[in-house]
Amino acid sequence: MTIHNRHMLSAASFRGIGAAGVRAETPEVKAMMERFNSTFEEFKNSNDARLKAIEAGKNDPVQAEKVERINASLSEVQAEIGRMMEKFAANDLAGSGASADIQAAARDFSRTVGHDVSAEDLGKYASGLDTYMRVGADNRKFGEVRNLMEVGSDPAGGYTVTPDLSGRIIKKIFETSPARQLFSVVSIGTDAMEGLIDRDDLTTGWVGEKQARPETDTPELGKWRIDVHEQYAMPKVTQKLLDDSGFDIETWLSGKVADKFARTENSATFSGDGVNKPRGILTYGTAATADATRAWQVFEHIASGNTGTITNTDFLINLVMSLKAAYRSGANWTMNRKTLGYIRTLKDGDGNYLWQPDFTQRQGGALLGYDIVEAEDMPDAAANALSIGFGNFKAAYQIVDRMGIRVLRDPYTEKGFVKLYTTKRMGGDVLDFDAVKFMKFAVS
Questions:
Q1: What is the rounded distance in angstroms from the CA atom of residue 418 to the CA atom of residue 412?
Q2: CA separation for the pair 113, 107 (Å, rounded)
Q3: Do the beta carbons of residue 397 and residue 284 sit within 8 Å?
Q4: How far is Cα 375 from Cα 372, in angstroms, rounded to an integer?
Q5: Cα separation of 51 and 63, whole Å?
Q6: What is the pTM of this model?
Q7: pLDDT computed for residue 359 by the predictor
Q8: What's the DSSP call for residue 265?
Q9: Across the 444 residues of the chain, what is the mean pLDDT of every consecutive 10-residue run?
Q10: Cα 151 versus chain centre, distance
Q11: Which element (helix H / strand E) includes 287?
Q12: Residues 102, 84: Cα–Cα separation, whole Å
């Protein structure tokens, strides 16, 4: 199978992002394109040397470590390009003069105070805030002669300028999976969703003009059901902190709860046991048998040939072709970033790399012509692990929403404290076991 090399990143890779289009001529874009291309070339050259050494019967751990290091760097560049594209979409790089971050901050601050604040003025203000945050208001110097009043000196007028502590909070980024991007989502108005399963077939026969026509078999229907489950959180905070804090504690807590809800929900759709939570797609059994003979509620898997590697890249092609054509039109891959790093090292029989970058979709690139969706809830490549999934996940898995996040603010149960009782109701389960196939890292 011949795969054309199209890894070189160009301005065309950024087209179609943002209403205003992409300014591919900016130094930031050019530098990032050059960095990506050079890193990818270095990665391929180093990996080629590693593969040649393996073919010669040599296992060079230093070379393997070098490939892994460059691979990680390639992921960082890819992530940075994704962030740059987000900025393009929001027009954060518009304008000239001061840096893009200062310009964006000036626009935000202008909206807050109700009048225009230039990037230059905000830069001076940021300098004064930096002084305040470093030395504080009590470490001032007296006795100095000043020829002007300025923000940078507290006695010379700086006391009258109160620092704005409304800047963004730097928070930890947790690993998660884009379940709602990957799976089908529907809202319902009750506590469960049901539907019919039509997997049975009927029989027909050929007859002559005067032959008898006996009855034929009649197909039967099955039924599926997805129950809605409730997830909750109830953080507690003092009323005094809510009243006196310099920023909106209640909104911050609500945001933390919503983020945790999303991550917990994403994990459940992959590995939940179905007890008071969704049942995950990875919790069902698999078999190395085709759709026609495999039992329902069992996925098909293709063995990688080894407990930790893919011994022949044709196995990936077999995985694609094991999926019926009706599903392949909406299919994609899913794996975690560590497995994706391994996939980047694979070549086809003609020496072409199987993985190709594709930043227009803001995904993990493409493999054999199908997009890759990174999902950190997918397991690492290990013995008997279902580390790579391929198929039409929207046809396979259904998420049902009863309602969005609901918050009950309770300042009455415990005087002086406010409890934020937050709930969300949703469910999820597999509907179609033919729509997704897995690569199982095993000999057979």
A1: 8
A2: 10
A3: no
A4: 9
A5: 10
A6: 0.69
A7: 66
A8: H
A9: 43 39 58 80 84 79 83 78 64 47 54 50 51 40 46 51 49 72 92 86 88 87 92 90 79 84 94 96 96 93 92 93 95 94 90 82 80 94 95 96 85 89 93 96 90
A10: 43
A11: strand 285-287
A12: 16
Neighbouring-strand partners of residue 366: 356, 371
227 residue type, one letter: D
Strand partners, 191: none
Q: Which structural domains are found in the chain, ordered by start?
A: 100-160 (no CATH), 175-204+218-336+375-444 (3.30.2400.10)
Q: Which residue has the tokens 């007890």?
A: 275
Name residue, tokens 């992002």.
17
Six-digit token pair at 153? 């000196």
313: tokens are 């890249």
CA distances to 52, 151, 204, 297, 321 from 362, rounded to whole Å, are: 33, 43, 49, 32, 25
CB 279 within 8 A of CB 272: yes
Q: Among 390, 388, 370, which Cα is nearest to 310's? A: 388
Q: At what angle do helices 61-89 and 27-55 cross, to 10 degrees?
A: 160
* Residue whose token pair is 């002086």: 416
